[in-house]
Amino acid sequence: MFERRPSLERPDAIDPGSMAARTYRDVRVVGNRAVMTARRQLRSSDVDAVPESALDAVFEQYDEHPTVFVHVGLSDVKSAFNCDPYEFLRDRLDAHFENVLVQGFTPSFRNPDGRVYHKNYSVPKYGTFSTLFLDDCDYRTDDATNSILVRGDYRFEDCDHHDTWSPDGCFGALDRDNVLILDVGTNWIRAAQIHYLEVLLDVPYVTTTDYEGIIYYDDSTHESVTQRSHEYERPITWNRAKIKDDLQQDGVLEHHELNGLDLFAFEARELRHALAPRIEDDPHYLVT
Q1: What is the model's pTM?
Q2: Which of 5, 64, 85, 200 has the fewest CB atoms inside 10 Å of its own CB, making it the most exposed?
Q3: What number of CA atoms fall less than 13 Å from residue 136's CA on the CB side?
Q4: Residue 249 domain-assigned (yes or no)
């Protein structure tokens, strides 16, 4: 396991060379955010009909993985299969994997006006698939900001649910188990696991923060909770295009294109092995 990079001592005075380098880096961060935002807004969905057998053929390539963590763009799935995209994909995932994991993130817990997390009713914010999956999952982690929804028997019993990005936390378990990450119908790669790497490797634009609130386990059982999670010091955007290209170059990421429907597949531990050296060489690698 990688050790966290020690905090850097900040000098009282900054020499002109360092100031110029910092300015150049900041320009790259802002420029990347602008470019990625523009590319996302200008993207047009060009997905044609896809045979169900073609999707099954892709999933069959990963049948050795009992567990999959998925990110989904339902609009492209609907265009490809002309059906209820949520039920269709849920059923196809069930047919190929024993355990299906989905992010159930509730960033509202960071809001000081309402820090309450209910495991049954707190609605995931990111993605319609996650929202619908809440009713179909068998289990949800106790993490008040970055919970994971599970359909199947996979559990996080020995993990620290309240230190989100710790090696002892739930995302650390995904790394240890080298869980398959699968993006279906997303315009770029999606990987909540990258947050884990940012905190693990102590990138300079992320801090860890404790949030005090209440967790409800059911309609009546509740208690106070302190959730440690991440916070960005400024608005940033990952350079997903660069990350995808580098992961493909390393042979870590496989890109399947089915008549315009994109699928990206990679493993959690292999993601760390590929990206950690780059982040250690350039702590702003992900965002420039």
Answers
A1: 0.85
A2: 64
A3: 17
A4: yes
